[in-house]
Amino acid sequence: MDNESQQENSPENKRLFLLYTNSLKSVPATILNSSILLALFWTKVPWLTMLIWYTLMLSVSIYRLQQVRKALKTKSYLKLHPKKALNQFILGSSITGAIWGASFVLFNFYTDEAYSLLMIWIASATAMGGSMSLAPSQRAQNIFVGLIFLPAVVMNIFSGNEFNITMGTLCILFLIVLIMLGNTFSSWVNESLTLQAQNQELLQSLQQKNERLETTNSELIKTKEFLTEQTMSDPLTGIANRRSFDHTLIKEWNRCLRRQYPLSCILIDIDYFKRFNDHYGHQKGDELLREVANIISSQATRADDLVARYGGEEFIVILSNASHDDAVMLAERTRKAILDAELEHKNSEISDRITISAGVATITPTNIQDCYEIVHKADEKLYEAKNNGRNQVC
Ligand SMILES: Nc1nc2c(ncn2[C@@H]2O[C@H](COP(=O)(O)OP(=O)(O)OP(=O)(O)O)[C@@H](O)[C@H]2O)c(=O)[nH]1
């Protein structure tokens, strides 16, 4: 969550937001009420007094409405200190309250008992509506209601007239009830605003935790992939290791068994590798193993082919759905590619270059066979190739 939305969601600013949005309804209601008052009292109160009062109420209301709309549209209240923005708002609502309060004092001079009652009724309705609308701020509520009623209370009580004293007393009672109810309502609103802010904070911390979990999870996935690669590949040559070979052999064997495809296997051995090591050293031997692994990999390129290091200087190739002829052809191509690479081997008994021998086996799997039979057969063929003079495919 960015800074602005964090600020917007603070209880203080939410309170202001509620006060402003409530005003969009309560201020037009004030205009309506004062217009009703104007219509009702037009013939009773001197027209100039009435006009001044109504113009004042209308101007203040329109000005407040404009300010509230602007504040909501531009979110200008977020730039002010919440206390200052609240004080400005309370000033506006208090002026409205004071104009209402003034009306009850002013108009009372010119009206009879029936109209006084009517005015008290309007005052009560206005105070009640205002109190609900100002519920987010207890202070705004109390000042507004107080300013409406207190002048009427004071004036009625000190009038000396029995009817007015009764009215004044009723006004005090109503004022007390209204303040108590308003304050209860206000504390509910504030409690709900605090809870909303706490929820927002909780949600935010949950989101952050979730993001951290997602990051950890993707790191774990990467580590798992890395570890899987490590356990499935030969560290020296980078091609698949024996473990990976076993895994693929079982998988491909079962696939060929289901579909009744031929499965071929080529076992490759570098001729006189021990002599190479003895002559050029173990490190050169390692380099040669890497070179040979690359050449074999460059020949078996189908998506399902697997080239693996089977043992010290032995490599194995699995060719799924490949006929024996195709496998022999690939083995022959590989033997030639290694020969053509002209990798020097002065200590070989059959050539001055590196040569390989390969044994090829092909089986269309059946249920009674074990998958390692194909490796056993390829090994026999390799032995044959060695016995026949090496540098050949059998
Ligand atoms: N440099 C190196 N040598 C290895 C590695 N693994 C096995 N060897 C050597 O490979 C040699 C294999 O020797 P042999 O099994 O006699 O095979 P060969 O010399 O190729 O004989 P033929 O297969 O009969 O042609 C041994 O000397 C091992 O030490 C390795 O990772 N690096």
TrEMBL record:
Entry protein name: diguanylate cyclase
Catalytic function, reaction form: 2 GTP = 3',3'-c-di-GMP + 2 diphosphate
Family matches, as PROSITE patterns: GGDEF
Coiled-coil residue windows: 192-230
A Pfam family this chain is assigned to: GGDEF
Transmembrane segments: 16-41, 47-65, 86-109, 115-135, 142-159, 165-185
CDD domains associated with the record: GGDEF (cd01949)
InterPro entries: Diguanylate_Cyclase, GGDEF_dom, Nucleotide_cyclase, Rev_trsase/Diguanyl_cyclase
GO molecular function: diguanylate cyclase activity
Entries under NCBIfam families matching the protein: GGDEF
Entry EC number(s): 2.7.7.65
Domain GGDEF: 261-394
Native source species: Litoribrevibacter euphylliae
Record keywords: Coiled coil, Membrane, Nucleotidyltransferase, Transferase, Transmembrane, Transmembrane helix
